[in-house]
Design a protein that fits this description.
- 2 copies of one chain form a homodimer.
- By secondary structure, chain A is mostly helical.
- Chain A is built from 10 helices and no strands.
- The structure holds a DNA duplex.
Chain lengths: 234, 234
DNA sequence: ACCTGAACACCGTTCAAGT
DNA sequence: ACCTGAACACCGTTCAAGT
């Protein structure tokens, strides 16, 4: 009976994230992680339900790194910006894990923490209920969408191409079909992702701060989304 | 020499998407697709570079379904909203393919088409260069972020739980730690995703329409992101 | 309660051969 | 140019057994 676990959840997370950071997502498997920890694959099933669960563990490890100021700012928008930027920094620090985060963020406890902090800031705008939900979705959508954009660039670089080559290829798209795409590819060549994030987020927050036009009443309906609590192992 | 291809790109796309729609992402493999088409796995390598390439093919098939009005609206924001909503509808029509879209949208030709149409609308706001890039990122980030939210709900339902159960589980989170999360879980219970999308997008567009505060000049730097052209097979 | 090796039913992909 | 079967090096996971 009562035998102490051989590995802690934190050990698993750290080892898995290290593997992903160093060698990419494809390098993470039950077998490779077990190997990195010096055991057989089956041992992992004492700590993790699934391969899926392992992926969630990694996403959670990334989100757990997010740090923001605990003291509220004067302006609620600054507070939201602070938390959102923290989440985004955590994601950017682990580019190879981004697909996992895009796909499992809402199953991570650490993700819930970030969400609640974001909501605390947004609630200070005077919103509650449905309006708060919409604002929350807008901000989180923006953050994870920016992470998606980040991923796209890294994928190509990963595939062995320099950023310059990627942009050049865009520039060599048929210019009659994709004139604007080519234009922003040029802009992207000298752009700082941090600035893009900041400016974009401020635009979103400005939109949320502006008086909102009346909207038709809700039809009662439908399922909850982005609301899945993380399943805790045993 | 010159032998006509046994399958067209469209056939592959259709068969793969059907498989995913019907049985989920895990049901798509080189072998299962080959089987559905009545060949051996190796035949697929005449049409596709990779397993990765197959994923991109599916994402492309989904984005190719996006349809929007070809005639420009009076207000540029309505035009952007039209295109963005079209992209979102396409995504929602294939919920089980969402992880692929989140992860490979920027490698899809059909995705480029949507992007260019979005840019055409945004350019009418008077933006170009860096400002256009930022506006573009904000809108696409919002759309794919909303898709991410959509995914989260479907995952749980897929896992065999009714939407009500999912929301109930959220409501039963520790209420001292996650008060706001619980609040919006309640709001989400009666919320229509379509309304959320519309309201959120309008907030983003309102923010983009508002006069922008001055921003510090760009440091020259960095790589392009979200700009990877799709690799065409021979 | 937790650990673990063997075995099974899958994968993607290389190779070599065919037309 | 395109098709294809056999074979290889991987996967996640079930089972049964150990402490």
């Amino acid at each position: 009976m009562g035998r102490p676990p051989k590995f802690s959840r934190e050990q698993l997370q750290a080892a898995a994230l290290t593997l992903v950071d160093a060698h990419g997502l494809e390098a993470l498997s039950m077998r490779s992680l077990a190997n990195a920890l010096g055991t057989g694959p089956m041992t992992l099933y004492n700590h993790v339900q699934d391969r899926e669960d392992l992926d969630t563990l990694v996403a959670d490890a990334v989100m757990a790194e997010a740090r923001w100021s605990p003291t509220p700012h004067a302006d609620w928008r600054d507070e939201v910006e602070d938390v959102a930027a923290a989440g985004w920094r955590a994601v950017r620090a682990h580019p190879r894990a981004i697909p996992l985060i895009l796909t499992r963020r809402s199953r991570s406890t650490a993700g819930l923490e970030v969400a609640e902090a974001l909501l605390a800031g947004l609630a200070r705008s005077g919103r509650s209920g449905h309006a708060l939900l919409v604002a929350f979705r807008a901000v989180t959508a923006f953050v994870s969408g920016m992470a998606q954009a980040e991923l796209a660039g890294r994928l190509a670089v990963e595939a062995g191409e320099s950023p310059e080559v990627v942009i050049d290829r865009f520039r060599s798209l048929p210019s009659d079909r994709y004139p604007r795409l080519i234009e922003i590819a040029g802009a992207a060549a000298t752009s700082d992702p941090e600035v893009e994030f900041r400016e974009g987020l401020r635009a979103v927050l400005a939109g949320l701060a502006a008086p909102r036009p009346p909207t038709p009443p809700q039809r009662a309906k439908k399922q909850g989304r982005d609301l899945t609590p993380s399943r805790r192992r045993s």
